[in-house]
Description:
The chain has 276 residues and is an alpha+beta fold. It has 2 domains: 10-92, Phosphorylase Kinase, domain 1; 99-268, Transferase(Phosphotransferase) domain 1 (Transferase(Phosphotransferase), domain 1, Orthogonal Bundle), CATH 1.10.510.10. Helices cover 36% and strands 17% of the residues. It has 10 helices and 9 strands. It has helices at 47-53, 56-68, 99-106, 111-130, 178-181, 189-204, 214-223, 236-245, 256-260, 263-268; strands at 14-22, 26-33, 39-46, 77-82, 86-92, 133-134, 143-145, 151-153, 160-161. It has a 5-stranded antiparallel sheet. The longest helix is centred in the middle third of the chain and has 20 residues, at 111-130. It is globular. The mean pLDDT is 89. Bound molecules: adenosine monophosphate (AMP). Residues 20-23, 26, 28, 41, 75, 91-94, 97-98, 144, 154-155 line the site of adenosine monophosphate.
Amino acid sequence: MGENSERQWCISDFEIGKPLGKGKFGRVYVARERESKFVVALKVISKEQLEKYKIHHQLRREMEIQFSLKHPNVLRLYGWFHDSENVFLILEYAHNGELYKELSRKGHFSEQQAATYILSLTKALAYCHDKHVIHRDIKPENLLLDHEGRLKIADFGWSVQSRSKRHTMCGTLDYLAPEMVENKAHDYAVDNWTLGILCYEFLYGAPPFEADSQVDTFKRIMKVDLSFPSTPYVSSEAKHLISRLLVKDSSRRLSLQRIMEHPWIIKNANPIGVCS
Length: 276
Ligand code: AMP
């Protein structure tokens, strides 16, 4: 599949299997390429929906960015095609589905599992940032797991390819950095903030600034109103890492390189990216 990415595909090249899920703009099915028997996820987006929500440009940007990214922790987009009614995205199949479901099922992750996911995410983000891509919408729903439990960043709908500070408002409030909540210019460090939020959520089961209303979440983010519950037990090294990422001044947040070298990561993460 990978080597043949320049090839023109059409729907009859695939046997369509069970539905995997339904997103805002389309349905996703497991599918198998007839010739190679290669299993993929096929995302079907109706042109009518694209028309209605005027998201052609966003989709094209998402496809071009995702197509150019080749990293073990970034969901591959192998190619795309369309017919008169739909656009089809040929995606890497993430057999174990959404990380969010695994988190809901378990309540929270062990330090080993959380550190392994944070290291995988950090490596993927370092790769994206090198290519001048800021994801901006990293949250558990956009993280998938492959057949070995390896984390894959999916959904590049809000990402941008940029060399300068950005100004647009986007994303879900709980995961937004203060500079985005305030609609100020922001850069790569927004993804570093999100790593702090996710690290907290993986260990405690809920994001740190959760509140009954959006206004209260907003206030808590702006104050960086961070506290660590006493249960479940979480080591002081993990809390140190979280505190060094959830820093209001974006220039003072721990860099991706420093996250990879942090004692909590070194002690707990599996560098292969697979949780035992
Ligand atoms: P989306 O439209 O991208 O939000 O996808 C809808 C749902 O389909 C997701 O929540 C996942 O559960 C599932 N899904 C999407 N892409 C894949 C994939 N590549 N592999 C496995 N499941 C997927």
